UniProtKB/TrEMBL annotation:
Cited Gene3D superfamilies: 1.10.8.60, 3.40.50.2300, Homeodomain-like (1.10.10.60), P-loop containing nucleotide triphosphate hydrolases (3.40.50.300)
Keyword Nucleotide-binding in annotation: yes
Superkingdom: Bacteria
Annotated protein name in UniProt: AAA family ATPase
SUPFAM superfamilies listed in its UniProt record: CheY-like, Homeodomain-like, P-loop containing nucleoside triphosphate hydrolases
Species of the source: Labilibaculum antarcticum
Taxonomic path: Bacteria, Pseudomonadati, Bacteroidota, Bacteroidia, Marinilabiliales
Domain Response regulatory: 6-125
Cross-referenced InterPro entries: AAA+_ATPase, AAA_lid_NorR, CheY-like_superfamily, Homeodomain-like_sf, HTH_Fis, P-loop_NTPase, Sig_transdc_resp-reg_receiver, Sigma_54_int
Keyword Hydrolase in record: no
Gene Ontology molecular function: ATP binding; sequence-specific DNA binding
Residue ranges constituting the Sigma-54 factor interaction domain according to the UniProt record: 155-384
Example GO biological process: regulation of DNA-templated transcription
Modified residues (4-aspartylphosphate): 55
Length: 456
């Protein structure tokens, strides 16, 4: 630590100022002293300090410490990351506790204990560096969030269903209410979750999304709650879970309906107590997260069938937002088509592209089982393969090569049939694993297992 940091000492004892300056000189790059605290604010305008050593009492006969507390608050008003160590001739424990609550980082007596003085000030300097590092990381996170949010554009549309959705979003975004977002796959549930986050007071904090449907039961706890080194075979270091990563911000729990009933209890406990215990840990960790969840399942029916905990459901659905399917918002298709057309025309350097009326009509007449996600994929594919900037109905490639065959295979081998069906489902949904799993009537983790089994 030698030769680092800037220290300001405020004390009315001239001899003490001289002695401290002489003793601490080898350990700080710069040391300034002030005898009269009334000069403090003007000094703060001139220079910036890492550590402050502040006397508690300046007027003769007054030992309350109120002067020190007053100037402590003035320093913190000027710099919220300031590290202030208070010093007094009176070892008042209650005063020390009060000072720490007001924002002091430590408290020492005026008895000349060199080791205590030096260790306390160097610890304060180390804390100052940590505070500045955290401040820098938060600023970087804000910039990253801003860039992500700037690139996360979408079309609200003017259909009644979407207008109702956004009226609700605007009402609840600024609250701390948990929100359950429901709707078919591909309707834009994560987009709505991000919009809720952006309109909340947590917008400058992190938005963490976790796909619960893709988590195996073995990884569920460690992914959500973190793990300690040595907790299991591959735990070579402490690992932070999604709850702790999202603390201060928003945690989006996608595919909440896929969580097995025996794991729902642990999720409920974390949400209810605002605490998590990492795998292999003993001490609870406080977390401050707003929970947004999404599902394409009917959780009320699942709860009635004993597949979903009612108490967890009530924790999640303080507010429920149901997203309409694309076939229920046909009026939005021209606006959506133009948005994605320009997005992919720019992405693939196609210049200014337009859609003819015949193309819009074709898009409007399709049923869109994959909703917005399928729509987006079709527009992207059409832009890539089209040789013209003005796309007609024939340029809009809906369903080509994606319809499932209704022919029964000559072979009665279950493995052959299962592999072929999985291949067709994946192709039919454009690689959308959630939609493919739904078409096949299985969950995503089972689909991933079969993909590995058949080396697809």
């Amino acid at each position: 630590m030698a030769g680092k940091g800037k220290l300001l000492i405020i004390d009315d004892n001239v001899e003490l100022l001289f002695a401290l300056q002489l003793f601490l000189k080898p350990h700080f790059a710069k040391i300034d002293t002030i005898k009269n605290p009334n000069q403090l604010l003007s000094q703060l305008e001139v220079d910036e300090y890492d550590v402050y050593l502040l006397d508690m009492n300046f007027k003769a006969g007054i030992n309350s410490g109120n002067e020190g507390l007053y100037w402590l608050n003035r320093i913190l008003d000027f710099d919220s990351n300031a590290c202030v160590v208070l010093i007094t001739a009176y070892g008042d424990v209650e005063l020390a506790v009060k000072a720490m609550k007001e924002g002091a980082v430590d408290f020492i007596q005026k008895s000349w204990d060199e080791n205590k003085i030096l260790s306390t000030l160097l610890s304060a300097y180390k804390l100052r560096n940590s505070k500045l590092e955290i401040k820098g990381l938060k600023e970087k996170q804000k910039q990253i969030n801003h860039q992500i949010n700037k690139n996360t554009q979408f079309v609200r549309g003017n259909s009644k269903g979407m207008l109702d959705v956004f009226r609700t979003v605007e009402k609840v975004a600024a609250t701390e209410a948990n929100v359950l977002i429901t709707g078919e796959n591909g309707t834009g549930k994560e987009v709505i979750a991000r919009e809720l986050h952006l309109l909340s007071h947590r917008k400058d904090q992190v938005f963490v999304s976790v796909d619960l449907g893709s988590l195996s039961e073995n990884l569920f706890e460690s992914e959500l709650f973190g793990s300690k080194k040595g907790a299991f075979t591959d735990a070579k270091e402490d690992r932070m879970g999604r709850f702790e990563l999202a603390s201060g911000g928003t945690l989006f729990l996608d595919e909440i309906g896929n969580v097995p009933i025996h794991l729902q209890t642990k999720l409920l406990t974390a949400i209810q107590n605002k605490q998590i215990v990492p795998v292999g840990g003993n001490s609870p960790v406080e977390v401050d997260v707003r929970i947004l969840a999404a599902t394409n399942c009917n959780l009320l029916e699942m709860a009635a069938d004993g597949l979903f905990r009612e108490d967890l459901l009530y924790r999640l659905n303080t507010i429920t937002i149901e997203l309409p399917t694309l076939r229920e918002r046909i009026d939005d298709i021209p606006e959506l088509a133009d948005f994605f057309l320009q997005k992919y025309a720019d992405q693939y350097n196609k210049g200014e592209c337009t859609l003819e009326k015949s193309a819009i009509k074709k898009l409007s007449q399709y049923s869109w089982p994959g909703n917005i996600r399928e729509f987006q994929h079709i527009i992207e594919k059409s832009v890539i393969l089209s040789d013209t900037k003005k796309l007609s109905a024939s340029d809009v490639l809906i369903g080509e090569g994606f319809q499932l065959s209704k022919k029964i295979l000559d072979s009665f081998n279950l493995t052959d049939n299962e592999k072929l069906l999985i291949e067709k489902a994946i192709k039919h949904t454009g690689g959308n694993m959630s939609l493919a799993a739904k078409e096949l009537g299985i969950n995503r983790s089972t689909l991933y297992d079969k993909i590995k089994k058949y080396d697809l």
